[in-house]
Write a structure and sequence with these properties.
about 200 residues; 2 domains; single chain; six-stranded parallel beta sheet; binds flavin mononucleotide; about 20% strand; alpha/beta; 6 strands; globular; Rossmann fold
C-alpha cells in the first residue's frame, strides 16, 4: 500500500461521529495518509490520483449515502485518472442493526464497478451514535484495528459490529437519550417529530 486518503463524508464533519471513528482508525493505521472532509473537496487541491487507497467514513442517512459524499463521488467519477484507487468503507448508523448499512455499501460496490475502482474492506457499525460512549466501545476499536490491518496488508475484510443489547432495551434507552437532549434545547417529542426541527 502506498498512501491512503481518508474522507469524512458526514454533513456535520467537524463534530461528527465519523470524525471519532477516523481518530480511532488513525491510531491503528501505521501507513501514510491524508484526511479530507467531503464538504471541502471541491475547494481542495487534493488529487485522488495520488493515492492507492481511499477510505470513506460516513453515516447512513435515510438508508443511503449523505449528500457531501455523493458530491465527492460524482466529482471523483468525472476527474481524469491515471490509476484507480481501491475504495474501503467505514459506515455507521443510528439504529442498532449494522445490516441497515448494507444498501449503502452495495451502492458503493456498484459505483466502484461502474467506474473501474477496486473495492476493498468494509466495516458496518450499528448503534454508531452511541456505542463509543458505552463500555462496548472496545468492540468497535477491535474491529477498527482489524480494518486498518486489512487495508495495509491488502486483505479485504467485511465486518460488522453493534452493541450486544436486546432491541427493546436499545430503543427505550435511545428514546430517553433523545428526549433529554431535545429538552436541553427547548424541544419536545412533538416538535422533534415535525419537519420544522430542521430549521432549529
Ligand atoms: C437526516 C438523518 C438521517 C438519518 N438516517 C438514518 C437511517 O436511515 N438509518 C439509521 O440507522 N440512522 C440514520 N441516521 C442516524 C445517523 O446515521 C447517526 O446519527 C450517525 O451516527 C451520524 O454520524 P455522523 O455524526 O458521522 O454524521 C440519520 C441521521 C440523520 C441526521
Amino acid at each position: 500500500m502506498e498512501s491512503l486518503l481518508i474522507i469524512n463524508g458526514s454533513p456535520r464533519a467537524p463534530r461528527s461521529n465519523s470524525k471519532r471513528y477516523i481518530e480511532l482508525f488513525t491510531q491503528s493505521f501505521t501507513g501514510s495518509y491524508d484526511q479530507l472532509q467531503a464538504l471541502n473537496y471541491s475547494k481542495s487541491t487534493v488529487n485522488v490520483d495520488d493515492y492507492s487507497d481511499i477510505l470513506l467514513v460516513f453515516p447512513l442517512y435515510a438508508d443511503s449515502i449523505p449528500t457531501p459524499l455523493m458530491t465527492f463521488l460524482k466529482i471523483m467519477s468525472q476527474s481524469p485518472k491515471t490509476r484507480q484507487p481501491t475504495i474501503h468503507v467505514l459506515i455507521n448508523c443510528g439504529f442498532l442493526e449494522p445490516e441497515q448499512n448494507i444498501i449503502a455499501v452495495e451502492m458503493l460496490q456498484f459505483y466502484a464497478k461502474q467506474f473501474g475502482f477496486s473495492f476493498g474492506s468494509v466495516l458496518m457499525v450499528g448503534s454508531g451514535e452511541a456505542i463509543l460512549n458505552t463500555p462496548f466501545s472496545f468492540l468497535v476499536k477491535r474491529r477498527i484495528r482489524k480494518l486498518a490491518a486489512s487495508i495495509q496488508t491488502h486483505n479485504p475484510l467485511c465486518q460488522s459490529v453493534t452493541m450486544p443489547l436486546p432491541k427493546s432495551i436499545f430503543l427505550s434507552a435511545s428514546t430517553k437519550y433523545w428526549l433529554t437532549m431535545g429538552a436541553k434545547h427547548g424541544q419536545t417529542k412533538e416538535t422533534m417529530s415535525t419537519m420544522s426541527i430542521e430549521k432549529e
